[in-house]
Specification:
The complex is a heterodimer of chains A (365) and B (619). Chain A contains 15 helices and eight strands. By secondary structure, chain A is an alpha+beta fold. Chain B contains 20 helices and 22 strands. The radius of gyration of chain B is 31 Å and the shape is globular. The chains are: A alpha+beta (365), B alpha/beta (619). The A-B interface holds A 51, 54-59, 122-123, 129, 136, 139-144, 147, 149, 157-158, 161, 181, 184-186, 188-193, 279, 281, 283-289 and B 1-5, 7-8, 10-11, 14, 20, 31-36, 51, 54-55, 57, 88-92, 95-96, 104, 154-155, 158, 160-165, 200-204, 223, 226.
Chain lengths: 365, 619
């Protein structure tokens, strides 16, 4: 049969974000897929070299639109480590609660994209609504819905407003009460199984070899999570489980996402119960005179898409000398996507891509 | 795992549920209390310091001059202007704003055809009432930067989370119980770490530099201390102030009153940091590397080696003139030598500054009283210009009955510091509420502890002014109270009561009704029937000083012009109404402190140089 080259880019409804794939197809089958990043390059890492330590704080969150919070965390953690700033315990707990809320919000957003892609519009709209409820919480806590600009070096930017813990609980109860509906309509839906099972399959060996992280890796049976292996914030203060699946296909990946959301909600409740009193911010030095001694640091965390890292170098000046983010979508969107698309049908490109949780802004930065 | 094709149809129940989507604009969503929307800025409290513009990561804020506002010490007439094409609403400007005048509101609508309207100078509902509406008059359909909600604060400043440090590094002091037993300097001074930490608080907005009469480059010398370069710092200081050891101890610190950190927190310790720079540098000569300018062949006489005289001598010497400084005392410093007690300003600190000025080639003639040892009219002939920096050297007296039994403040202070200390009484009454009165009281207290160790003694002060009106600084009052000095504010002396042998028994006082009249002039009024007798065996009057011009021959003195406030009238070059006679310091300015004397000296030094170069017209 004749081979064709097919361009699958932002013009396609199934493409999320400014990203494209060139497909070599034989009939309906994909012979080879080539990812084309670069449409969303905004030069953040270079920009960071031209801004002072504090001026980078409102900038880093913008690297990833879907989930800005872990970017903030990475920057805060790196600067704290470089400058030797101690974060108060309460701030650590608030950080964990805030990051888990962000994870749920991000997963709901991912669920919206995925369900939408498969044509489950009803579920997609529910997910979007429930994400909005979480954004309401963020708005109350930080003053912003999407870019929160909240986790800064030294702790968090403001303490919880009065009665906020109760509102977190009630919002999570509202969302949690809909889990049976989600399950009946989507996760236990035969159609979902048919569309996703065995699609975009990735063996554990391939996943490890190609640097898969997060739920892509956990869907192949690897029990790996930075929150467990290298605990930061307050993740070592409460008990929680790492959800895993073994099939390594799109179906498993979305199920891991579902289980992770539920685990996160449980974790938030546990963290809220143990939330200590005290200060939530250790004041940083005067931002106009802040110079960090010459050193370099690599920090990492488990974002909602997997391991996220930041390499930050100071040359003793008032600005970073070099910053580099290691983002989960970088490996997912380039090598793993190409591998997972092999021998799949054209109709499943969006399906596989979103199940890998690729966000274009993370690839390009 | 059970998959089903029928169960998903359960979702049909949501067909009958109320829609979740808000039907905007009929259903509105109230933004959260901390919402980061458009700015408001309280022009009353905004100091125009520009920290918001400095921290803005997007350079969205520009400080623009507002012609209808006046610049004053601690406040410029600039206000932030925000470009909403650049603003990312991060709110760093809010967290760095020292007065907390800049806030974000919960308004976020602005739709306009004119892109220029997005460049915006925020004010608030008090300054622009026509743009802010109460909830019932507000319509979301008209919402814009010129149709906003009243009292709609969102993300506002919180001192606990501010980006600046509102609290000072505490200055180590000798505790009151210990310091009142001797004349030990009670301010210990910052060490290296403390000084650097304190210097790190400076936001470099330079409001202080405007407020300083001598316009020292404060931000620069503080920055040098922060960078652990006290030598650089001292060099910066010497550009404008040649007596840092003195000023670092007793400066009135107008800068600290203007410091933007002082509005909601504690001002930067600018004075103590200057002292740190002066005390840390061991050798002024090698550090400063200053040399007199090329010799001009002109000679200037300076009468009085106080702050004004020392400064003018320094500046003139740097310009290459020959300078001779005349003073009746045995050393330099003038009022600084005689007035501030040793626990505030030790003689060694004064001599350090004087010695450095001497090392530049300034000639000092101490123990030389002009008018007696040398004649003023001879000086006028011998020198090309004469600078008067004679200060206020005579104490005023209350002139109440038996006033001649009292001791005068300056005599008391001078003798204790550079002469033979007085034999003090056990019950001392000090009349006055200014800094001099408190110096006298605190010095008297120390002498009591030295002369009557372990005995019951007391120092009381009587002042016309009530708490809050007293001219003494808060710091002095606090320290004096820590040392158990008893205050009797709002009492005026009526009579010094003496016994048959003429010994002082005490002071009869009247209650003060008001100190100032309706025009704000000094005109004390008393309750005639409310009297109080205060026991005491020694009374010291510290109610003010006046200048002594007796060294000037009468025909010349008659030519001198004075202002309404009885100050010597000088022109913009510092020249008096007599040709080639310049003046500065307490006899010219109304601030009557060291740093203003330096400011006068700078003007006069430039004036003298211009005069000697033949540039200015004679008076």
């Amino acid at each position: 049969m004749r081979e064709l080259e097919l361009y699958f880019g932002p013009q396609h409804l199934g493409m999320v974000g400014n990203f494209s794939i060139t497909l070599q197809v034989e009939g309906d089958r994909i012979v080879k897929a080539t990812a084309n990043p670069g449409f969303l390059h905004r030069g953040f890492e270079k920009l960071m070299e031209q801004r002072t330590w504090i001026q980078n704080f409102p900038l880093v969150c913008r690297i990833n639109v879907v989930e800005p919070d872990h970017m903030e965390l990475m920057y805060a953690m790196a600067v704290e480590k470089l400058a030797g700033i101690e974060v108060p315990e309460r701030a650590q707990f608030i950080r964990s609660i805030y990051l888990e809320l962000a994870r749920v919000g991000s997963h709901l957003f991912g669920l919206w994209a995925y369900a939408n892609m498969l044509g489950f519009d009803t579920v997609a709209n529910w997910a979007m609504y429930h994400r909005d409820l979480i954004l309401d919480l963020f708005e109350e806590l930080t003053g912003g819905r999407v870019y929160h600009i909240y986790l800064w070096p030294g702790g968090v930017r403001r303490d919880f407003p009065e009665g906020f813990e109760e509102r977190i609980r009630s919002t999570l109860h509202t969302i949690g009460s809909c889990v049976p509906d989600y399950d009946d309509t989507f996760f236990h839906n035969r159609l979902f199984y048919e569309r996703a099972h065995g699609v975009g399959k990735l063996s554990r060996e391939d996943a490890c070899r190609m640097g898969a992280v997060g739920q892509v890796l956990r869907a192949t049976g690897m029990k790996k999570d930075i929150r467990k292996t290298e605990p930061y914030a307050a993740y070592d203060q409460v008990d929680w489980e790492i959800p895993v699946r073994t099939d390594g296909d799109a179906y498993s990946r979305i199920w891991v996402v579902r289980d992770e959301m539920i685990e996160s909600v449980h974790m938030i409740f546990k963290l809220l119960d143990k939330l200590p009193k005290g200060e939530a911010y250790q004041r940083i030095p005067n931002p106009f005179k802040w110079k960090i001694p010459e050193s370099e640091v690599y920090v990492r965390c488990e974002s909602s898409r997997g391991e996220l890292g930041l390499y930050l170098v100071s040359d003793g000046g008032d600005k970073p000398c070099r910053a580099h983010f290691r983002t989960p979508s970088y490996s997912h969107g380039l090598t793993i996507l190409e591998k997972a698309l092999e021998n799949e049908s054209i109709a499943d490109v969006g399906n596989i891509m979103i199940s890998l949780y690729i966000t274009a802004p993370e690839i390009d930065r | 795992m059970s998959q089903s094709v029928l169960k998903p149809f359960k979702a049909i129940k949501y067909l009958f549920a109320k829609p979740k989507t808000l039907r905007y604009p009929f259903e509105l969503k109230e933004p959260a209390m901390r919402y980061r929307g458009f700015h408001v800025n309280d022009w009353e409290t905004c100091t125009g310091c520009g920290n918001c513009a400095d921290i803005c990561p997007n350079q969205a804020i520009e400080m623009i001059e507002i012609p209808e506002l006046v610049s004053e010490p601690g406040k410029t007439n600039k206000r932030p202007r925000i470009d909403y094409g650049r603003c990312c609403f991060c709110g760093l400007c809010i967290d760095i704003c020292p007065p907390g005048s800049l806030k974000l509101t919960r308004d976020y609508f602005h739709i306009h055809f004119d892109p220029d309207t997005f460049v915006f100078v925020p004010k608030n509902e008090h300054t622009e009432p026509e743009k802010y509406f109460p909830t019932n008059e507000y319509s979301v359909l008209k919402a814009s930067l010129s149709h906003r909600r009243k009292d709609y604060d969102g993300f506002v400043s919180d001192l606990k989370y501010s980006l600046f440090e509102p609290e000072r590094v505490p200055m180590p002091v000798v505790p009151p119980e210990e310091r009142m037993l001797s004349f030990i300097e009670h301010i210990i001074g910052y060490d290296r770490e403390e000084a650097r930490k304190e210097a790190a608080r400076c936001l470099e907005c330079r409001l202080c530099e405007e407020a300083c009469p001598a316009h020292l480059k404060i931000s620069d010398y503080i920055h040098a201390i922060f960078e652990d370069k006290p030598e650089e710092s001292l060099k910066k200081i010497y550009e404008d102030n040649p007596i840092p050891s003195i000023c670092g101890r007793v400066c009135m610190a107008h800068c600290e009153k203007a410091c933007s950190l002082s509005i909601r927190g504690e001002a930067l310790s600018i004075r103590w940091l200057k002292r740190y720079a002066a005390d840390t540098v061991k050798d002024f000569k090698t550090t400063l590397e200053l040399n007199p300018g090329p010799a001009t062949g002109r000679k200037v006489a300076v009468i009085g080696a106080g702050p004004a005289g020392l400064s003018v001598a320094y500046f003139l010497r740097l310009s290459g003139h020959k300078v001779g400084v005349y003073d009746a005392l045995a050393g330099g410093g003038g009022t600084m030598r005689t007035g501030p007690p040793a626990y505030r300003l030790p003689l060694e600190s004064i001599d350090r500054d004087v010695d450095y000025i001497r090392s530049l080639g300034v000639e000092f003639f101490f123990n030389t009283r002009v008018g007696k040892d040398v004649l003023f009219e001879d000086m006028l002939k011998e020198y090309d210009a004469v600078f008067l920096g004679t200060g206020y050297t005579r104490s005023r007296s209350t002139q109440v009955k038996n006033y001649e039994k009292c001791v005068l403040a300056l005599a008391f202070l001078t003798d204790n510091k550079i002469g033979k200390p007085w034999k003090v009484g056990r019950q001392i009454i000090v009349i006055g509420g200014g800094n001099v009165a408190l110096d006298v009281a605190r010095e008297a207290l120390r002498l009591q502890h030295i002369q009557y160790p372990g005995e019951k003694t007391a120092v009381k002060t009587v002042s016309l002014e009530d708490w809050g009106e007293m001219p003494a600084t808060e710091e002095e009052i606090r320290e004096a109270r820590e040392e158990n000095i008893q205050f009797h504010p709002a009492w005026g002396p009526k009579e010094v009561v003496v016994d048959e042998s003429g010994k002082i028994k005490g002071l009869l006082c009247r209650k003060v009704k008001s100190v100032f009249n309706e025009q704000g002039r000094f005109a004390p009024a008393f309750h005639e029937n409310k009297e109080m007798f205060m026991e005491g065996d020694m009374i010291i009057e510290a109610i003010g000083q006046y200048p002594d011009f007796s060294f000037i021959p009468e025909e010349l003195f008659n030519k001198l012009k004075f202002t309404q406030r009885k100050k010597l009238s000088v022109d913009e070059n510092g020249m008096t109404s007599i040709a080639k006679v310049f003046a500065g310091g307490d006899i010219v300015n109304t601030n009557m402190d060291a740093v203003t004397a330096i400011a006068d000296a700078k003007i006069a030094a430039q004036g003298i140089s211009r005069y000697l170069a033949g540039e200015t017209v004679t008076a």
